[in-house]
Write a structure and sequence with these properties.
The complex is a heterodimer.
Chain A: H1 12-28, H2 35-56, E1 61-69, E2 72-78, H3 80-106, H4 115-134, H5 138-157, H6 163-194, H7 199-204, H8 211-229, H9 238-244, H10 247-272, H11 278-301, H12 305-332, H13 336-371, H14 382-385, H15 387-400, H16 407-425, H17 429-461, H18 468-471, H19 478-496, H20 499-513, H21 539-561, E3 566-569, H22 586-589, H23 591-596, H24 598-601, E4 603-610, E5 620-627, H25 630-651, H26 658-675
Chain B: H1 3-31, H2 41-51, E1 54-57, H3 62-81, H4 97-116, H5 121-152, H6 157-160, H7 168-184, H8 203-207, H9 212-237, H10 250-277, H11 286-307
Helix pairs in contact in B: 1-2, 1-9, 1-10, 2-9, 3-4, 3-9, 4-5, 5-7, 5-11, 7-9, 7-11, 9-10
The chains are: A mainly alpha, B mainly alpha.
Chain lengths: ~675, ~300
C-alpha cells in the first residue's frame, strides 16, 4: 500500500453519507433544506474516490457484513469491474445531487414526490445501486438488486396522485420482477452447480457447468438482465418509468441504473461460465442491433422530451450490447487482445453514455421547471430565455449524436474499430456478414441519433416559441446549472482526453478477458494495438484543426472583400408575418423518417370527419397519429391474455373452505417430503 | 505528419474546389447541348457572395451566425484528411476514415440546426430531409470504408489508398461510393443543386435564409466537401500517379497534382453525365437508391472475405 492509497474502511464512507442523507431527509422534512442533497453529493464524491482507489488496488477489498447462516452470508467485494461500475454510478450522482438542491424546490406539481421523500429515496437508491456492484454473493446481490428496484419504483410513482405515474410504476414493478425471476433461476442454476452461494464458488465452478446448463444460464441471464437493461422487446417499462420520476432521478435511472444490468451480464457471462460458444456472441449482437435501431426510431417518433431520452437509452443499451456481443464472439474465436479492445469500447461508451444522458435529462428537467411542459410542440425559442441551459443541452446533443470531438464519438469510434477487428478475426463468411450488418446498423443508428437530437435541440430551443410558457421561460437556479455544467465539462473532458478512461479500464479488461487493450488516442495520435489494427483519432488535434480551419474561410473572405456587413431583418415568409405555427413542428421534422422506416415502426394515423348535417359540411375533424409497436399486441397482450385465463382456472382452487386449504397444506407437505427424501 | 504537405493540401483544396464545381457544371451543360457558363463561374459567384451584405433573421441566435464557420472548419478538416495528390493522408495523426465520416456528421449537425433557427418552414423542410437522407447515406459510406479497411487491416486513410487494379470487392465498393457521392453532394437523382423549388430541395433548403458572406462560405464549404468525396473515390480506387509523401519533391508534387486534377475532372464529367441522363427521383423514391448503396456495401464487405484481399 503506497502513501496515496485509501484505507479499506474508506469504502464505508459513501454508504455512511447516503444513510445520513436518508436520515436527515426523514428527520427534517422541511421544504428547502439542502442538507440531504449535500450529503448525497458528498456520498457520490467519496464513492467516486473509493472507486478510483479500487481500480488502482492490486487486490480486491473483501468484507463480510453479516453471516446469517454459513451458506448465505451478505458479503461484499470491491474488484476492478465493481470499482469501474461504482465510478459509473458515482460521477453522474455528484451532478444529480447538486442539481437536486435547486430542482426539488423549483419542481412544483407534476405529481412528484415531496422533497423529503425524494431526497430520502435518492439516497437509498444510490446506496442500493452501489451495493449491487459490490455484492459478492447470491444473497447480497439479490437483496441489493431488489432494494434498487423497490426504491426506484417509489420514485417512479411520485406522490401517487397521477394515474400515468401509477400505471408506469405498475408496469415497471411487474417487469422488474419478471426480470428478478429469471435472475433467481439463473442463480439457482449456479448455486446447484457450485455448491456455495458466494461468487467465489461460482467462479471456481465455472468449468463444471454441463452443456445444457450453460445454454440455459445464458438465456436466463440475457432475459433477466436484458429486461432490466431495456433491450427490445423487454423494454416496455423503460419509456414509461424513466420519464415519470423527478428529472435528476430519471437521469440516474437512464444513465446509471440500466448499466447495473450490463454489469450483471459481464459478471455472469465472463466470470461464472467459461468457453462461451459462438452463438452467444451472435445472439447479443443481433439483440443489440434490434434495440439500437428500433430504440432510436421510436425516440424520433416521440414528442415528450423525456420519453425521447428514455427511448434513446434503449438505443444506447443496444449499442453497448453490440459491443458485449463482439467481445464475447471474439473470445470464442480465441482473439483475446481484440476482445479486450471490444470490452474497452463497450465500457468507454457505457461510461460516456451515463454522462451525456444524465446531462440531457437534467436539461429536460430544467426545461420542465422553466416552462411546465416537456412537449416539444409547445416549446421553441428557449435559447433566448435560457441561454445557458441551451449551451448545456446542445453540448449533450452533440455528444449523444456521436460527433467529434465530444465523448460520444470516442466510444463509437472504438466500437467501429472492434467490429473491424471482429472482421479480421472472422473464420466464416457468416461472421463477415454479421460485421457488415452490425457496422452498417451502428452507422445508421448514429446518423438517426443525429436527426433525433437536431430535432430535440432545434425544435426545443430555436426559432419562435410555440406557447406562452415557452415565451416566458426564464433561466433556472444556480445549483441546477452547477449540475449540468459539471456534466457538460465531463463530456468535453472525456472527449478530449479519453486516455484517462483507457487507463482506468486496464485492470478491468485484464481480469475479464485476460488481455489488455490500451488504445492511445492522445495528442500525438494514434495507433491502437499495432499488430492487430491501426486507426487514429486525436481529439485535441481535431479541436485545434477545427478552430484553425474554421477561421480560414473568415480570414479568406476578409482578405478578398474586406470587412463584412450584416443587417437584421425579419425572416422572409412570402410576404406575410412569421407565425410560430409556420415553423416545422417536431412531428413534421420526423415525417421523412416515419415514411422511410414505416415498415419497421408501423405508424398509424386515424382521421375522422364529423358530418352532422350533410356529407358536404364537415363540422369537426379529429386527427390522431401514433406508433403502435407490434410487440405490444403480439407479445404482451397475448401473454396477459394467457395469464388471465390461467388465473381464472387456478382460482377454482380457492374455494374458501378451511378444510380444502388444510388438505392443500397436507398434500404439499407430503410432496415436498417425497422429493426431499 | 508533414506540415508542408498539410499546408499544400489545404491550399490546393480551398483553391480548386470551385474549379471542380465548374467542371461538373460545364460537363452537365455540354451533355445537355448547352454552352453553359464559364468553367470559372463558381469563383465569380463566390467573390460576389463574400463581398455582399448579409441579412440575418431577427429570430436567429448565435447558432445561425456560428454554423457556417463550424461547417467550413469541419469540412476543411475532413478534406485535409483525405489523400489527394500524395500517397497518404496529409494529416494522419488527426484522424482516420471514421473521423472523416464523423466530421461530415459534425458539419451536418450544425447546418441542420442553423436551418431551424430562423423559424422559416423552408429551413425546417431542408433540415428534416437532410438528416433523414444522410441517415441512409452514412451506413453506405461506412460500409465502403469497412470493405476497404478489412483487407488493409487499418482504417488509416494512408493505408486505405488503393494499390493497383481493383478487385471484385473494390468494384462493388466503388459503385456504392458513387451513389454516396451523388447523395452527399446533393445531385440528381437524389437532390437538385440548381433549384429552389420547395418540393424538391434538400441541401438548398437549409441555405435559403443565408445571404452574403455566410452564404458564400457555405457554398464554398459544400464545394470543398464535393472535392473531398471525389478525392476519396480517386484515392481508394484510382491510385495512380500519387506523390510520395516521404520524399516530397517539386516534380513529384507536380505529377501528383496533375494526375489528381485529371481524376477529379474525369469523375466530374461522369457526375455531369449522370445528372443529365437521369431524372430526379421523387423524394421518397430516393431512399431506395441509397438503400442499394448500403446493400452494395454489405456485399463488398462479404466479398473481401469470399474473394480474399
Amino acid at each position: 500500500m503506497s502513501a496515496l492509497d485509501l484505507p479499506h474502511s474508506f469504502l464505508l464512507v459513501p454508504f455512511f453519507c447516503y444513510a445520513l442523507a436518508v436520515v436527515a431527509a426523514l428527520a427534517i422534512r422541511r421544504p428547502g433544506g439542502a442538507l440531504p442533497s449535500l450529503l448525497i453529493v458528498l456520498g457520490a464524491l467519496t464513492g467516486a474516490l473509493a472507486a478510483i482507489d479500487g481500480l488502482r488496488q492490486s487486490e480486491p477489498i473483501e468484507a463480510v457484513a453479516w453471516a446469517i447462516i454459513p451458506a448465505a452470508e451478505l458479503s461484499f467485494r470491491l474488484d476492478p469491474l465493481g470499482a469501474f461500475f461504482l465510478l459509473v454510478i458515482s460521477v453522474p450522482a455528484i451532478a444529480a445531487g447538486l442539481y437536486g438542491i435547486g430542482y426539488l424546490n423549483a419542481a412544483h406539481g407534476h405529481g412528484q414526490p415531496p422533497r423529503w421523500a425524494a431526497d430520502a429515496l435518492l439516497g437509498a437508491f444510490l446506496a442500493s445501486m452501489s451495493l449491487v456492484v459490490l455484492a459478492d454473493s447470491l444473497i447480497s446481490f439479490m437483496v441489493a438488486w431488489e432494494l434498487m428496484s423497490l426504491v426506484s419504483f417509489f420514485l417512479v410513482i411520485g406522490d401517487g396522485h397521477h394515474a400515468d405515474s401509477r400505471r408506469a410504476g405498475y408496469v415497471y414493478i411487474v417487469m422488474t420482477h419478471i426480470s428478478a425471476g429469471f435472475l433467481f433461476l439463473a442463480f439457482l442454476l449456479l448455486l446447484r452447480n457450485a455448491g456455495g452461494a458466494d461468487f467465489e464458488a461460482f467462479r471456481a465452478a465455472a468449468g463444471a457447468l454441463s452443456g445444457l446448463e450453460r445454454e440455459a444460464l445464458f438465456l436466463l441471464a440475457l432475459l433477466g438482465f436484458g429486461t432490466k437493461a431495456g433491450l427490445i422487446p423487454l423494454h416496455v417499462w423503460l419509456p414509461r418509468a424513466h420519464p415519470a420520476a423527478p428529472s435528476h432521478v430519471s437521469a440516474l435511472m437512464s444513465g446509471v441504473m440500466v448499466k447495473t444490468a450490463i454489469y450483471g451480464l459481464l459478471r455472469v457471462l465472463w466470470e461464472f461460465v467459461d468457453a462461451p460458444p459462438q452463438w452467444w456472441g451472435w445472439m447479443l449482437i443481433v439483440a443489440g442491433v434490434v434495440s439500437a435501431l428500433l430504440g432510436i426510431l421510436y425516440a424520433l417518433m416521440e414528442r415528450d422530451l423525456k420519453r425521447i431520452l428514455a427511448y434513446s437509452t434503449v438505443e444506447h443499451v443496444g449499442i453497448i450490447v453490440i459491443g458485449l456481443g463482439a467481445a464475447l464472439l471474439l473470445e470464442s474465436l480465441g482473439h483475446a487482445a481484440i476482445a479486450a479492445l471490444a470490452l474497452v469500447a463497450t465500457l468507454v461508451h457505457l461510461f460516456n453514455h451515463s454522462i451525456f444522458k444524465s446531462l440531457l435529462f437534467l436539461g429536460a428537467g430544467a426545461i420542465q421547471t422553466a416552462t411546465g411542459t416537456r412537449d416539444l410542440e409547445r416549446l421553441g425559442g428557449l435559447i433566448r430565455g435560457m441561454p445557458r441551459t441551451a449551451v448545456w443541452f446542445i453540448t449533450g446533443a452533440l455528444a449523444i449524436a456521436a460527433l467529434p470531438p465530444l465523448n460520444g464519438f470516442v466510444g463509437e469510434w472504438l466500437l467501429f474499430q472492434s467490429l473491424l477487428g471482429l472482421g479480421t478475426a472472422a473464420d466464416a463468411v457468416g461472421i463477415a456478414t454479421l460485421v457488415a450488418i452490425a457496422g452498417g446498423s451502428l452507422a445508421l443508428t448514429a446518423a438517426l441519433a443525429l436527426a433525433c437530437f437536431v430535432r430535440a435541440a432545434g425544435v426545443g430551443f430555436l426559432a419562435q416559441p410555440r406557447s406562452d410558457a415557452a415565451r416566458d421561460s426564464r433561466e433556472v437556479g444556480r445549483s441546477m446549472h452547477a449540475g449540468m455544467g459539471l456534466l457538460a465539462l465531463a463530456t468535453l473532458g472525456l472527449g478530449l482526453f479519453p486516455v484517462v478512461l483507457f487507463e482506468a479500464l486496464e485492470p478491468v479488461t485484464r481480469s475479464l478477458a485476460g488481455a489488455t487493450a490500451r488504445p492511445s488516442l492522445g495528442l500525438g495520435g494514434h495507433v491502437l494495438n499495432p499488430d492487430e489494427l491501426a486507426g487514429s483519432y486525436a481529439p485535441v488535434l481535431v479541436v485545434v484543426g477545427l478552430v484553425a480551419l474554421g477561421i480560414v474561410p473568415w480570414l479568406v473572405a476578409r482578405l478578398l472583400t474586406g470587412e463584412g456587413r450584416s443587417r437584421v431583418s425579419p425572416t422572409w415568409v412570402c410576404g406575410v408575418d412569421l407565425e410560430p405555427r409556420m415553423q416545422y413542428s417536431a412531428t413534421a421534422f420526423a415525417k421523412p423518417i416515419r415514411l422511410i422506416f414505416a415498415a419497421l415502426i408501423r405508424p398509424q394515423r386515424v382521421i375522422e370527419f364529423k358530418r352532422p348535417v350533410s356529407d358536404f359540411f364537415v363540422s369537426e375533424v379529429r386527427y390522431e397519429e401514433g406508433v403502435h409497436p407490434i410487440y405490444e399486441r403480439h407479445l404482451y397482450q397475448r401473454a396477459v391474455g394467457l395469464l388471465t385465463v390461467a388465473s381464472h382456472r387456478v382460482s377454482r382452487l380457492q374455494s374458501g373452505s378451511i378444510r380444502a386449504y388444510l388438505a392443500y397444506v397436507f398434500v404439499t407437505l407430503v410432496v415436498v417430503l417425497l422429493i426431499a427424501r | 505528419m508533414d506540415p508542408l504537405l498539410l499546408a499544400i493540401q489545404i491550399s490546393l483544396v480551398i483553391l480548386f474546389a470551385p474549379l471542380a464545381q465548374g467542371i461538373i457544371k460545364t460537363s452537365k451543360a455540354r451533355w445537355q447541348n448547352r454552352r453553359g457558363p464559364s468553367i470559372f463561374q463558381p469563383y465569380f459567384d463566390l467573390l460576389k457572395w463574400l463581398g455582399r451584405e448579409s441579412v440575418v433573421s431577427d429570430q436567429a441566435s448565435w447558432v445561425f451566425r456560428l454554423a457556417p464557420y463550424i461547417y467550413g472548419g469541419a469540412i476543411l478538416l475532413a478534406a485535409a484528411l483525405v489523400p489527394t495528390f500524395a500517397r497518404g493522408s496529409a494529416a494522419p495523426g488527426f484522424g482516420d476514415a471514421i473521423v472523416f465520416v464523423g466530421l461530415f456528421a459534425l458539419a451536418r449537425f450544425w447546418l441542420a440546426l442553423a436551418a431551424l433557427d430562423t423559424g422559416s418552414n423552408f429551413g425546417g423542410m431542408g433540415s428534416s430531409r437532410e438528416v433523414a437522407f444522410a441517415a441512409l447515406v452514412e451506413p453506405a459510406l461506412l460500409l465502403v470504408i469497412f470493405a476497404v479497411a478489412l483487407p488493409a487491416g487499418s482504417t488509416s486513410l494512408t493505408a486505405l489508398v488503393g494499390s493497383g487494379w481493383p478487385g471484385a470487392s473494390e468494384i462493388v465498393a466503388f459503385l456504392a461510393l458513387m451513389i454516396v457521392a451523388i447523395a452527399e453532394t446533393g445531385r440528381i437523382p437524389v437532390d437538385n443543386p440548381d433549384t429552389h423549388l420547395e418540393l424538391t430541395m434538400i441541401h438548398e433548403g437549409m441555405l435559403l435564409e443565408y445571404s452574403g458572406r455566410p452564404l458564400g462560405v457555405l457554398h464554398w464549404a459544400s464545394q470543398i466537401k464535393q472535392l473531398a468525396i471525389l478525392s476519396l473515390i480517386a484515392a481508394l480506387f484510382l491510385p495512380w500517379g500519387l506523390a510520395d509523401p516521404a520524399s516530397l519533391g517539386v516534380a513529384g508534387i507536380a505529377l501528383g497534382v496533375a494526375t489528381w486534377g485529371v481524376k477529379i475532372a474525369a469523375l466530374g464529367l461522369l457526375l455531369g453525365m449522370i445528372e443529365t441522363a437521369f431524372a430526379k427521383l421523387r423524394i421518397f423514391r430516393a431512399p431506395d437508391l441509397i438503400g442499394v448503396a448500403s446493400v452494395l456495401g454489405v456485399l463488398a464487405v462479404m466479398a473481401t472475405f469470399v474473394v480474399g484481399p
